[in-house]
Amino acid sequence: MSELTFEQAERELGEIVERLERGDVPLDEAIALWERGEALYRFCRERLDTAHGRIEELTRQSQS
Amino acid sequence: MKVEALEYGDKRVYTVASFNKGVGAWLSRLPTVWVEGEVTELRRQAAWQSVFLTLKDPDGGASVGVTMPRSKFDALRLELKDGERVHVFGRPELFEQRGDFRLRALSIERFGIGEHLAALERLKQKLAAEGIFAAERKRPLPRLPRRIGLVTGNDAAAKRDVVTSVTARFPAAQVLVAEVYVQGPRAPAAIIDALRRLCQQPELDVIVLARGGGSFEDLLPFSDERLVRAVATCPVPVVSAVGHEQDTPLCDLAADARASTPTAAAKLVVPDLRDLVERLDRQRAALARGARRGLERHSQRVIVLVERLRRAPALAVERKAARLERQAGRLRALSPRATLDRGYAIVRKREAIVRAAREVEPGDRVEVEVAEGAFGARVE
C-alpha cells in the first residue's frame, strides 16, 4: 500500500464503496473489499495526520 | 593597414596614434549588430557633424557612447528624448584622436511599449499556432502533491505569500523553494534552470511559478520565448502566479493552470485539510454502511435457504402422499364396480369369467355377480 499516492488510495476507496453499495458482490469478496477499504482509509488518514510541513530551499548544491 | 613601430633594440614601441590606429583597424572588422538600450545624454547641435548619445542598459548596468552623422539622425525624424528605449544598428568604432570606443550608428529605431507589445503579440500568435497554449495540453494538478516546487524572486513577499497560503490550507505541505532572478535579462535563463533543477527532485508533483506585480517591463522575462516553452514542456504541471489579474505574461498561457494571487495558487495546489478529512470520514461511513448492507443481504439469503431446507422432508412426504392419492383415484376409476352399477353382471364358471356363450353348456353351474351381491344359477 505504501507505494500508493494519496489520490490513488482515495480513488480506490471511493470505488470500493460504490461496489459495496451496489450489493452484487459475493460475500467473501465483500469482506475482503471492506477490509481493503478500511486499510485505505487508515492509509489516507495517516498521510494527513502524521505529515509535518516542511519548507526547504533548493540550493545550488542539490544540482547533480 | 600598416602600423609603424619604433625599434629600441629588441623592443617594439608604438606611438599613441599608431596604437589607436591599429586597434581601430581591428574594431572596424567587427560585423554590424543591433543593440538595445535606453537613450541618455542625447547631444545634438546644428554646428556639429555628428549627434552623440549614451546608450544604457535600463537596470543601471553598462553603457556605451553612440555617434551618428547629424544628417542621417535628422532624416529619421525620431524626436528622441532621454529615457526612451531604442534599437541601434551599427558597428564598433574607435575615435582615434581620443582612443574612445563607441558604437557608430547606421540606424536607430524607437522600441517603446507599443513596439514591445507588438513583438509580444507576434510571439503569442506564433506560439499559439504551434499549439503551446492549447487546452488539450493542460495537465490536471495533483490533488495532494507530495512535494511542491516554488520558483520565486529573492524579494521575500511573493515567496512568503505563497508559502503562508499553502500552509494555511494544508499545514503538512512540503515546499521546495528555488529563489532566482525574476527580473532583468538574466531572469529567463535563471527561471528555466530552476524549473529544470526542481524537476530533478524526488516526489515533486507540481511547481508554482510566482512573482508579485510589477511594471510591464518587470514582467517581460515571463513572456520570454525560451521560458514559455520551458513551462509548456516542463515534466511536472506548472501553476503560473505571475503579476496581477490584468497582466497576462505568456507563461500564464503556457502553464497548466493560472492563478491571479498567491492565495488562488495555494487553492490550486493543495486541498483544504478540513474538507479532505471530512470527505474521507464520509467515505469511511459509506464503506461501513455498504459492507453492512452486503452482509445483511447475504444473511437474509441464508435464512431463506435454511427455512427451505427444514421444510424439505415434510414436503417430500406430502408430495408422495399426494401422488399415492392420485394413483388410488385412477385405480378406483378402473374398477369394474362402476360397470356393475350400470346394470351389468359378471358371470363366472369355476372362478373363470365367462366371455363367450360357447364356454357353457346346459346344466352348468355358474356364479353371477351384480352390483349388490352375487347368486348362483344354472344354464338351460
Any overview of this molecule?
The complex is a heterodimer of chains A (64) and B (380). Chain A has a domain at 6-49. Chain A is built from two helices and one strand. Chain A has helices spanning 6-22, 27-50, and one strand spanning 54-57. The longest helix of chain A is centred in the middle third of the chain and has 24 residues, at 27-50. Chain A is elongated, with a radius of gyration of 18 Å. By secondary structure, chain B is of the alpha/beta class. Chain B folds into three domains: 6-111, OB fold (Dihydrolipoamide Acetyltransferase, E2P), CATH 2.40.50.140; 136-274, Hypothetical protein af1403, domain 2 (Rossmann fold, 3-Layer(aba) Sandwich), CATH 3.40.50; 338-378, no CATH class. In chain B, the strands form four sheets. Chain B has a five-stranded mixed β-barrel with strand order 3-4-5-7-6. Chain B is rod-shaped. In chain B, 24% of the residues are buried. At the A-B interface, helix 1, helix 2 and strand 1 of A face strand 9, helix 5 and helix 9 of B.
User: Which strand-content bin applies to the residues of chain B?
Assistant: 25-35%
- The quaternary state of the protein chains shown equals heterodimer
| Count of folded domains of chain B | 3
Largest sheet of chain A: none
Examine the coordinates and then state which fold CATH places here, giving the name of the CATH topology of the largest domain in chain B. Rossmann fold
Largest sheet of chain B: 5 strands, mixed, barrel
Largest interface chains and counts: A-B, 36 and 39 residues
Count of strand segments of chain A: 1
Biggest sheet: strand arrangement of chain B: 3-4-5-7-6
Count of distinct strands of chain B: 16
| Shape, principal axes of CA atoms of chain B | rod-shaped
